[in-house]
Write a structure and sequence with these properties.
By secondary structure, the protein is α+β, with helices and mostly antiparallel strands. The chain contains 7 helices and 16 strands. The strands form 3 sheets. Strands 1, 4, 6, 7, 9 and 11 form a 6-stranded antiparallel beta sheet that branches. α5 links the parallel β14 and β15. It is globular, with a radius of gyration of 22 Å.
Length: about 375
């Protein structure tokens, strides 16, 4: 083969490869991703964090989605069709499975959103595609953005016992991040959101570990999978207008009563909190930060928590580079979910308290 023929063959291969790549990119663009996710080849994606999601528009009333639990146990997703919640789906361990969606004939086009109901600690859920006929979305892409950093309360731990009662099954069988306070308030305000939260984790220690054997939120925050694996860093492309941090419940916990537990260390908590805020600012320099106390902490512990949060805010009072840090205190509550956590009704109460406050903050110049 002479040089000219080799060049033409190379050119044809290059054009063909570009066309395939372009087609894949165009198909990927028909899916809208939110939260901590990892895009894969062939338009697949792994939903990682609590309430991470994939959404798409489609024509007709035929639709099934292909999903797989990436761990050797079950996982859950919650489904929303045309803005209405249609239920939580259990994904058993094993191969990719097809889940048909009941689609009404009332509309020509539909919008489906698939939210991971469980959290990062439960392993990823693979979205392997859909049988639906995809169409271009006409929804507005310009929305305010919020990131909610926290622990089990932010994850939606134990809030949905509608199918498996509290105390039964596995610890994540009652997870439903779709109904956690963050997603609820984000839908009410029509804003985009990401949850960066892990059950049991704290600011300087975990609910049952003195930061000896397990990581804390500052250790995992910059990692995509919210674990100790730093080989896949989070890209921080999502630039939130507002970041809320709700951490302290586990730091103040007494643990399980069996493992050694030291008294709460205010100095460590405040110091770690200050350093963590600097990390948040490093990745989102133009954001506004609000600190939340905990609806699961009351009495003298809440007094201690609020005092510490005020110390954290005081450390930034001369910071001219960023907007002032705010403090929001929840009204006291007696959570009715599993393991003394908020249930779906409690999450709505929390969201309703935050909605006007966050709305005002997001609209401030």
């Amino acid at each position: 083969m002479n040089y000219k023929k080799k060049y033409l063959l190379f050119l044809l291969i290059a054009i063909s490869s570009f066309s395939v790549a372009q087609k894949k990119a165009e198909t990927h663009s028909l899916f809208e991703y939110q939260g901590r996710i990892e895009k894969m080849l062939d338009n697949k994606a792994i939903l990682i964090g609590a309430a991470s999601s994939v959404s798409f528009d489609f024509e007709g009333n035929s639709c099934a989605v292909l999903l797989q639990s990436m761990e050797d146990h079950q996982n859950y997703v919650s489904l929303e069709l045309d803005g209405k919640y249609i239920g939580r789906v259990r994904i058993e361990k094993g191969e990719v499975k097809s889940f048909p969606i009941a689609v009404p004939n009332s509309k020509k086009t539909h919008h489906l959103s698939i939210y991971k109901a469980t959290e990062a600690a439960n392993g990823g859920v693979l979205f392997a595609g859909t049988t639906a006929k995809l169409v271009e979305s006409t929804a507005s892409k310009k929305k305010k953005k919020i990131e909610l950093i926290g622990d089990s309360i932010t994850c939606g731990y134990g809030n949905d016992a509608s199918t498996i009662p509290c105390g039964s099954g596995d610890w994540y069988d009652q997870h439903n991040a779709y109904w956690a306070y963050g997603p609820v308030l984000s839908r009410a305000l029509d804003i985009d959101f990401v949850l960066s939260s892990v059950s049991g984790y704290g600011m300087y220690r975990n609910w049952n570990d003195e930061h000896e054997n397990e990581p804390i939120i500052p250790d995992v925050y910059e990692n995509l999978y919210l674990n100790k694996d730093s080989s896949k860093p989070y890209d921080f492309v999502f630039q939130p207008d507002l970041v809320s941090i709700c951490l302290g419940t586990n730091d103040l916990s007494d643990g399980d009563g069996k493992k050694a537990r030291l008294p709460f260390n205010e100095e460590k908590y405040v110091s770690n909190y200050i350093d963590f805020i600097k990390t948040v600012y490093k990745h989102a320099p133009n954001t506004r930060i609000v600190l939340l106390n905990s609806p699961m902490v009351s009495g003298e512990r809440n007094v201690t928590l609020v005092k510490c949060l005020k110390k954290v805010i005081q450390a930034f009072e001369n910071d001219k580079m960023h907007k002032p840090i705010a403090l929001f205190e929840f009204q006291p509550m007696s959570p009715k979910g599993c393991g003394y956590h908020p249930d779906i009704a409690d999450d709505k109460v929390m969201a309703d308290q935050l909605i006007p406050y966050f709305k005002k903050m997001l609209n401030e110049k």
